[in-house]
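Can you make up a protein sequence with its backbone structure tokens?

===
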Amino acid sequence: MKTIGRRVFVKQGALALLAMGLPPEFLLRPLLAGTGRGEGRRKTLICIFQRGAVDGLSMVVPFAEPAYYRVRRSIQIAQPRRGADDTALDLDGRFGLHPALEPLLDLYRRSEMAVVHAAGSPHPTRSHFDAQDFMETATPGVKSTGDGWLNRVLQDTSCPDCSGRTLDDPAAHAADHAVGQVAMASVPALRGIAMGSALPRSLAGAHPALAIPDLEALGVAGGDPMEQAFQRLYRGEGGDEVTSAADDAFEALRILRGTDPARYEPANGAEYPRSDFGRSLRQIAQLIKADVGVEIAFADLGGWDTHVGQGGARGQLANRLGELARGIRALYDDLGDRMEDVVILTMSEFGRTVAENGSGGTDHGHANCMFALGGGVRGGAVLGDWPGLEPEQLYEGRDLAVTTDFRDVFAEVVSGHLGAKHLERVFPGYTIDRERWRGVLR
């Protein structure tokens, strides 16, 4: 039988993950990070992926466009009318929020929410799988990219002593920290988290990141006796890398348990949707307020592929938009003054056709809209160059045209908010257009 060296064991993960229900890299993560406690409040980016291609023309309605009403007979959102229900919520005389997004209107009026319209990918694909992959790697048209854009942000901002170098060998980098060759305190724990059973493509890569299906269920299967057995198994007497990794791993587990998710009470009267999405946002808020070092948090909300029976002011899409709005507003209110240090960014792989189809829905399109919220956001505005909806203005004669590359928005947020410096590494093969793009941050 071949003997597995301890260094290899640390690099590859190993047995503990089978009992802990944690990703294989979990034992490595604490080696690459301190606890995050006592280091003060951090800047945090919360990404919400509307997976399935939301209809951006219903999210933010271009009610000043006659073409919108000509081609959307049954699913259109009526122009704003004072005192009327089920109409668009006027933002600037040209665009209005879907009425189901009313919980967000006050944030827009307080200049703490911005809309980026006609944003998206320059790649023409209408495949959900490809478009999601291209957005999460931030390399449209390139299928060979090995890591996600958020992981590259973590790499770039991870370690001042490493000069932002890519972590090509996480185990070697961890060993450097463990023996004091690199300042341990510069790498906070739990920097990248995703609420779900698996890491999203955007957080996959060389830098450790943690997928958390449910904080309340996090731990070693079998309870305290099993956990104690694993601690004995992985604690050697030589104080080597595996011992250090195990000690730090279980310490990180204790930190997460210490947030006491079952007893968490949202602040400021925040009421999250009673759904997986609501629970995800609630637990993100809890981790941020617990100061465990979260810098990037990720949550999914699906159900946006409305080919049939999309509905207008009410119906299938309205119900999903209502869940999105209630969740974001609860998160915003729950975090309170911490939103000065937080940006919430929404995204979806592409938009939907301008015209409705024969089934009362919309098909796969091109450009879409994004939301940015937070104290540092240049809110109260619909940003981006609006291309128009007349037939000659449409992409391929059917879709809203892309005038803002989604990478320009991503880049501004991660550089201006999180301090990423090497944007050529975070967005390989793309030059950020700082001159043309007006920006979402103050």
Summary: The chain has 15 helices and twelve strands. The CA atoms of residues 123 and 141 lie 6 Å apart. The longest strand covers residues 113-120. Confidence is low (pLDDT under 50) at residues 1-39, 177-189.
